[in-house]
Design a protein that fits this description.
The complex is a heterodimer of chains A (773) and B (176). Chain A is built from 30 helices and 22 strands. Chain A has 773 residues and is of the alpha+beta class. In chain A, strands 13, 14, 15, 19 and 20 form a 5-stranded antiparallel sheet that branches. In chain A, strands 10-12-18-22 form a 4-stranded mixed sheet, with helices on one face. Chain A has a 3-stranded mixed sheet with strand order 1-3-2. Chain B is of the alpha+beta class and 176 residues long. Chain B folds into 2 domains: 1-31; 42-175, Jelly Rolls (Sandwich), CATH 2.60.120. A 7-stranded antiparallel sheet of chain B has the order 1-2-3-7-6-5-4. In chain B, strand 4 and strand 5 (115-120) form a beta hairpin. In chain B, helix 2 (42-49) runs antiparallel to helix 4 (157-175). The chains are: A alpha+beta (773), B alpha+beta (176).
Chain lengths: 773, 176
């Protein structure tokens, strides 16, 4: 009976026009096929032992599957290859993408088992995936508009789109569909983007270079008793009899690692795309690696439990639908919840949309702190609000210090394609009747954001200083500013407003961080101006009441940081805004509140190092080490200070100790390599720089020094490779000029490019409000 | 009625221009050229029609949209996929006008272009058909899949609905 059910399900999938019928279903229809009757064996049950007849049957099935797969691949190549545009040579059919596939030539799209085939046993995974970004990676208007511009550009064309589609539509790229006059039936894969068997067919990761740096195997859902992969779809009874062989074919340890995500969540613009040079596009992976969640970086301001990308974006939840991959009734989410509200909004995937919004709001990701105020004509910082007492009067000019901490995001705010996404601070001041006194970060009636809002975004520009508004990434040559907040760091946003002359009672100030996927002008590029308003999600907010008259301390709210952390975050923000004395003052307040907290002294010390005040830096770092002799962070900065003093032995000892504790610390490896290099200890330097390059394949110091070291070792080829990568990846010294051209034309934005700036509704010298309304 | 203009860009426009040149040289009008439909390729159209299809393309002309036609001639039935695209200043209004011809048996098609709807497009000779009308920005498109056979075992009404959705996703995706 079970066998018959399996056969029926199999036939319905393989017969006729199953693949296109599936692809053709309306997007809201996410119901997977009926499940097979199956009871998983109890835990600890050994794998089934096949009879000779069963082994023979499997061997016959394998032989047939291999033959069919090879014949179909050969036929597919005969059809595709003659007219394929090998723009980058026969050996690089997928360039500018980094994707590769095992075997000879292109792989036929039909080699990939369909998502509906997987759905028979993995209903939960299928239903989640269908609404998730991965399944919609190619077909959405948001992506198609960008990639179509590349395809239609007179200087580019569809061959260049392999750069984008290697991650967004790998079956199309590997199938040779990305060429003029394509011979490939696209209906079979365009609608599924990253389907189950793209991720689950990857066999190897090629470093962490990104741009789809993976090697795909011939898709296979089961191996034989010797571990040999059997290509294509097989009858379900084979999988149900040997789930362990199914796991061996489709589940690899690296699927659980951030390095796997890095394959596509790290991207650069190579010279093969832009005819210019390597430009870093985004790298959520490196940001994670430098965050507290990786536990690989000793220099973070705070610590946390080790958490991978999957730990946040693939949390286990109780499964609502049958899924034979579930463990103890829970299943790792295949929704990959993150920030994209646009795709579920467009497709009407209400469940995905509501879960995405809940995800954005739920994670304690950001902390918004209306930390302090300053009154005009006074240098005194009234801080921290809630603890300090102060008085206010009508007509007072007030400067509010809002500190926004990227507290628990394992990457920057905003990550990745931050020229398209939009997060900003909305700051309001309202009187007791709710009348608006000041408002920054509002949306205009046409949906555009107040141009003077403090936004966590960037502005890539072309070589003529034009803002790249429509994601024509191949034209980007510089970035006019980048106001994203790295993981664990904080930003200070200052607002100035005047208390009304007639003010009585109190005013309420509110700071909120809003997020919109995507920027209004980009949505207008896609749809024209007549599209519905896309969701704006408030990620975090905080309000405080400022009374006219006396203000006394008040109880903290549950989400508030303790006062020492509030001061610490202010110090971090001031450090990043080059306000060194004020930063040290803030960290000193942390010392007052937590005199035994070693990191507070380290924070003072590192700020003084940056400020080139080495004597006082030494005192602070020594104090940190006296409190915590094995503090890797303090040891690292001590190593830098020992170098300045010429204490090479101690310098090496410090850095070595940090490397022992944090073998994947790129900073410690880099500095230790430099130390050895300066001591002419070439083998030891080589070891550090090679290790550094494994951690970060784009590290310029590693490229530069390895180039010299390889040459000294008589390895001219390796030396030339490193030299070439150094030249390609090093920032173009002329590029900032393009940014200046842009900023000169956009005074409302140029203020935002200066780290220490003020948002104000007061009259500027030139007349008119400086900011806000 | 708004302004209409040829609706092709990049390489497709180049190919079409070359084809047009050849047509003018040999005095053939209207000019058809296979395999250069910008909105769906022949292989995909063949898949949708259930067998090898022959394609032709007609450039937009005054008051006439650009047209791609793919025909699969089988023993029992002929299957056709026809796509028209026109650029027009008030595309929404144009779409509403076209929708009137759809009659009352029409349904909104979610997540296709800016807006789209689907309706039956059976012909008077007893053939079966489905049509999608849609818009991407200022480009109005129509897609029709039809069979000359009313009880076509391969292209049933349900199957046509599924396939025209795929066609609509391809066409609108390429128009974005």
């Amino acid at each position: 009976m079970k066998k018959k059910a399996a056969l029926v399900a199999m036939m319905s999938l393989l017969m006729g026009y199953g693949a296109v019928g599936r692809a053709a279903q309306a997007p809201a229809a996410t119901q997977p096929p009926s499940p097979l009757a199956y009871t998983p064996p109890p835990k600890g049950t050994p794998p089934a032992v096949d009879t000779p007849a069963q082994r023979e049957a499997l061997a016959a099935l394998k032989a047939k599957a291999v033959q069919r797969s090879e014949e179909e691949r050969k036929a597919h190549n005969s059809m595709v290859t003659p007219t394929y545009n090998f723009r980058y040579g026969k050996g690089n059919p997928y360039t500018p993408g980094n994707i590769q596939v095992q075997g000879e030539g292109f792989i036929q799209p039909g080699a990939f088992p369909t998502a509906e085939y997987c759905a028979v046993c993995h209903q939960e995974a299928y239903s989640q995936w269908r609404q998730a970004l991965h399944s919609n990676a190619f077909r959405t208007p948001f992506y198609r508009t960008s990639v179509n511009l590349l395809i239609r550009d007179k200087t580019r064309g569809i061959a260049f789109a392999r750069h984008c589609d290697s991650c967004h539509n790998p079956i199309g790229v590997l199938g040779g569909a990305l060429t003029e006059d394509s011979k490939v039936d696209r209906a079979k894969f365009d609608s599924d983007g990253l389907t189950c068997m793209t991720c689950h067919s990857v066999l190897k990761l090629n470093l962490t270079n990104g741009n789809a740096g993976v090697e795909m195997g011939v898709p296979s859902v089961i191996v034989d008793e010797n571990g040999n992969r059997i290509p294509g779809q097989v009858p379900f009874e084979q999988i149900l009899r040997h789930p362990e062989r199914h796991s061996q074919a489709v589940m690899h340890d690296f699927l659980h690692t951030p390095e796997f995500c890095a394959a596509c969540h790290k991207a650069n613009l190579p010279d093969t795309l832009n005819d210019y040079k390597f430009i870093r596009a985004f790298t959520a992976y490196d940001e994670w690696q430098q965050s507290k969640f990786s536990q690989r970086n000793p220099l973070t301001f705070y610590t946390a439990d080790f958490t991978t990308c999957q730990g946040c974006h693939m949390k286990r939840n109780p499964n609502a639908l049958p899924d034979y991959g579930a463990k103890n009734g829970t299943f790792a989410s295949h929704r990959w919840l993150a920030g994209n509200t646009a795709v579920p909004f467009y497709y009407g995937f209400d469940e995905q949309l509501s879960k995405t919004i809940a995800f954005l709001r739920a994670g304690n990701y950001l902390n918004v702190d209306i930390f302090a105020i300053k009154k005009a004509a006074s240098d005194k910082l009234i801080a921290p609000l809630g603890t300090a007492s102060y008085s206010l009067a009508p007509n007072d000019t007030v400067e509010a210090f809002v500190v926004i901490q990227n507290k628990n995001i394992g990457h920057s705010l905003i990550p990745e394609v931050r020229d398209l996404y939009e997060a900003w601070v909305e700051f309001t001041v309202k009187d007791a009747e709710g009348k608006e006194i000041y408002h920054s970060g509002f949306l205009k009636p046409d949906g555009m954001l107040d141009p003077r809002a403090h936004s966590f975004t960037n502005r890539p520009v072309t070589d003529t200083g034009e803002f790249v508004d429509n994601h024509k990434v191949w034209t980007i040559q510089s970035v006019a500013y980048d106001n994203s907040v790295q993981a664990g760091r904080s930003v200070l946003v200052r607002y100035q407003f005047r208390m009304p002359a007639e003010a009585r009672g109190a005013v309420t100030v509110t700071a909120r961080v809003n997020y919109r996927h995507l920027r209004q002008s980009y949505l207008n590029n896609i749809f024209g101006k007549d599209h519905p308003a896309y969701p704006v999600v408030e990620i975090a907010s905080r309000s405080r009441v400022l009374k006219i008259g006396e203000n006394t301390p008040e109880a903290a709210e549950p989400g508030d940081n303790p006062d020492w952390m509030r001061w610490n975050n202010l110090g971090i923000a001031l450090l990043d805004q080059f306000q060194y004395q004020e930063s040290i003052d803030a960290f000193s307040e942390v010392i007052k509140l937590r005199p035994l907290y070693a990191d507070a002294y380290t924070n003072v010390g590192l700020t003084e190092i940056v400020w080139e005040k080495y004597s006082s830096a030494r005192r602070a770092i020594r104090r940190a080490l006296s409190l915590d002799p094995n503090n890797a962070r303090a040891l690292y900065y001590d190593g830098l200070l020992q170098r300045r003093e010429g204490n090479t032995e101690q310098e090496i000892a410090d850095f070595r100790k940090v490397v022992e504790m944090f073998p994947q610390s790129r900073d410690a490896r880099r500095e230790l390599g430099i130390t050895y290099y300066q001591q002419n200890d070439n083998p030891a330097a080589l070891e550090q720089f090679e290790a550094l390059q494994q951690i970060d394949p784009d590290d310029l110091t590693a490229h530069y020094n390895l180039s010299i070291l390889y040459r000294r070792m008589g390895k001219p080829k390796e030396a030339a490779e490193q030299q070439s990568m150094f030249v390609d990846k090093k920032a173009d010294p002329g590029a900032p000029t393009y940014s200046l051209n842009y900023l000169r034309e956009h005074p409302e934005i140029s203020t935002e490019s200066i780290p220490w700036h003020l948002h104000s509704d007061m009259e500027s010298n030139a007349g008119g409000p400086q900011n806000g309304r | 009625m708004g302004d209409r203009r040829a609706n092709r860009t990049g390489p497709a426009r180049g190919l079409a221009t070359a084809a047009l040149g050849l047509c003018l040289l040999f005095g053939i009008t209207p000019c058809d050229a296979a395999n250069n439909c910008a909105w769906i390729n022949e292989a995909t159209a063949s898949g949708l029609l259930g067998g090898d299809a022959v394609g032709s393309f007609t450039e937009a002309a005054a008051e006439q949209p650009a047209v791609c036609t793919f025909v699969n001639r089988g023993e029992a039935a002929t299957h056709t996929l026809r796509i028209t695209v026109e650029s027009i200043s008030d595309a929404h209004a144009r779409l509403a006008t076209l929708a009137q011809a759809c009659g009352t048996d029409q349904a909104a098609l979610p997540a296709i272009g800016n807006e789209a709807l689907v309706c039956a497009a059976d012909d008077r000779k007893g053939g079966l058909g489905e049509r999608v009308l849609g818009r991407v920005r200022d480009q109005v498109f129509t897609i029709t899949i039809s069979s000359t056979l009313k009880r076509d075992p391969m292209l049933t009404r349900e199957e046509m609905k599924a396939r025209i959705y795929t066609a609509a996703e391809q066409v609108s995706g390429n128009l974005f």
